[in-house]
Specification:
This protein is an alpha/beta fold. It has helices at 2-7, 18-27, 49-55, 66-75, 112-125, 176-182, and strands spanning 37-41, 58-63, 83-85, 98-104, 126-138, 149-150, 156-158, 171-172, 187-198, 205-215.
Length: 217
């Protein structure tokens, strides 16, 4: 679904996500950027790449869309070897181990089993003491949790006929206990739920998501 979306020039966010910048700077800012390896899961149109370029880290990314990867390799030739097409729920092909792994609403477009499998793979690729920063993991308090067709796991929905999740395939929603279970191998240092109630023009619509910082001990 996302390859089709990007081919249609949709969801082309190009500015760094403020919550991601805030979390990295507050909880995971590297002391020695020149030796810090950062992996971004699902980099999309590359919204966060300029931020990591500014930090001076070694940037890597796995993105499922060949269209986006080709575009980003041309736009950021200095990172071309580190930006690859791949499915992070199956494998992370890089030989490097990572100091920081960031995900802004990418893992949340998978079902529970795929997220669990991916987090185990990610954990093995992280250095001891490394940080995982997760931004906008959609919450079960989100209005759209009641609009999609639920899969058997009870947290994943599909077939949204309207709203922000129309035509994007699977969308995973979490409550606090589910987040804690998913990250049972990590130590969660910070977990915050962001709830935004939109009054105009969509009255009574609630956007709700989780931001988190976890470490590998």
């Amino acid at each position: 679904e996302w390859e089709s979306i990007y081919e249609a020039n949709q969801q082309m966010s190009i500015w760094p996500w403020s919550d991601l910048v805030s979390y990295v700077m507050r909880y995971a800012r590297p002391k020695k950027p020149e030796v810090c390896n950062v992996l971004e899961l699902g980099c999309g149109a590359g919204a966060n790449i300029e931020f990591f370029k500014w930090l001076g880290v070694n940037y890597f990314a796995l993105e499922g869309s060949p269209t986006m990867v080709l575009m980003l390799k041309e736009k950021f030739p200095e990172f071309s070897k580190g930006i690859q097409v791949g499915d992070f729920t199956k494998t992370i092909p890089f030989l490097e181990r990572f100091d920081i792994v960031v995900d802004r609403a990418s893992l949340t477009h998978n079902d529970t089993k795929s997220i669990q499998r991916s987090l185990k793979i990610i954990y093995e690729k992280m250095k001891p003491g490394a940080s995982f920063v997760g931004i906008d993991w959609f919450s079960t308090n989100h209005s759209d949790f009641q609009r999609g067709t639920k899969l058997k796991d009870g947290f994943t929905c599909s077939d949204f006929n309207r709203g922000q999740f129309k035509d994007v395939g699977l969308v995973h929603f979490s409550n606090k206990s589910h987040i804690l279970e998913l990250f049972k191998d990590f130590k969660i240092k910070t977990l915050e739920e962001k709830i935004v109630s939109k009054s105009i023009p969509s009255a009574n619509h609630i956007f709700a998501s989780w931001n988190l910082h976890a470490i590998k001990e």
